[in-house]
Amino acid sequence: MAPVFPSRKYRIPGDPGNVGARYRAMMAKRPFLLFGLPFLTVIVGGSFALTPATAIRYERQDRKVRQMTRDEELGVGKTKRKVDMKDEYYRLAAKDIDNWEQRRVKRLAGESNGVV
């Protein structure tokens, strides 16, 4: 016949043998040691761990941006046309903006056409 009451002792929440109660008691005595020190360790350690990751990021960016050679510098602005604000204004004012028609843009393959 099985015993009616369990064999394990019932522990109340404030029991000193409980792990949580012991942690709370130690936390009251040394809050920096149990809370502040692990927090600061994570912050400082994370800084050291993330330093190489940010360095890799900036090194990749530096590889994309390279210094121009002298020949490239000389040929950069040759194909640009000179822009005069008055000429642009009159060119745009001469266009007939009231007579226009709407055209659909050709969709890429596999893209929905937007028609419901």
TrEMBL record:
The keyword Cell membrane does not apply. Keywords: Membrane, Mitochondrion, Mitochondrion inner membrane, Transmembrane, Transmembrane helix. The keyword Ligase does not apply. GO terms for biological process: mitochondrial respiratory chain complex IV assembly. InterPro entries: Cyt_c_Oxase_assmbl_COX16. Pfam families: COX16. The chain crosses the membrane at residues 32-56. It is found in: Mitochondrion inner membrane. It is a single-pass membrane protein. One of its GO terms (cellular component) is mitochondrial inner membrane. Its main location: mitochondrion. Required for the assembly of the mitochondrial respiratory chain complex IV (CIV), also known as cytochrome c oxidase. May participate in merging the COX1 and COX2 assembly lines. Belongs to the COX16 family. This is Cytochrome c oxidase assembly protein COX16, mitochondrial. It comes from Lasiosphaeria ovina.
